[in-house]
Amino acid sequence: MSDRPNRRAFAARPGDPEQWIRSADTAPRDGKRSGFTARLTIDITPELRGRIKIAAFQRGVTVADMLRDLLEREFPNDEGDSS
After folding, report:
1. pLDDT tens digits for range 4-34
2. Is the pTM of this model over 0.85?
3. 3-state secondary structure of 30
4. H-only helix segments in the chain
5. Neighbour count for residue 65 (Cβ, 10 Å)
6. How much is the pLDDT for 18?
7. CA angle 57-43-16, nearest 5°?
8. Domain limits of the chain?
9. Which of 48, 83, 82, 47 is nearest to 67 (CA)?
């Protein structure tokens, strides 16, 4: 009987969350950089999460793309805004 490889480390939480967050600043393995270098985590109710997922599905977009667009609209990059 052959042994199965231990894949637990792939999905394991990082031992040092700060290092894991800073690792977003390093280039990905394929050498391509995405425009997104930070992760935002928020706590929401399961009901709200469900409504967000349904809305994204109905619009034919991912939840991440829909929320990025929402945040861009709500917090535009105003060059002249000093606040």
Report:
1. 665 555 556 667 767 666 665 566 566 565 6
2. no
3. coil
4. 8-11, 17-22, 46-59, 63-74
5. 12
6. 72
7. 110
8. 42-76
9. 48
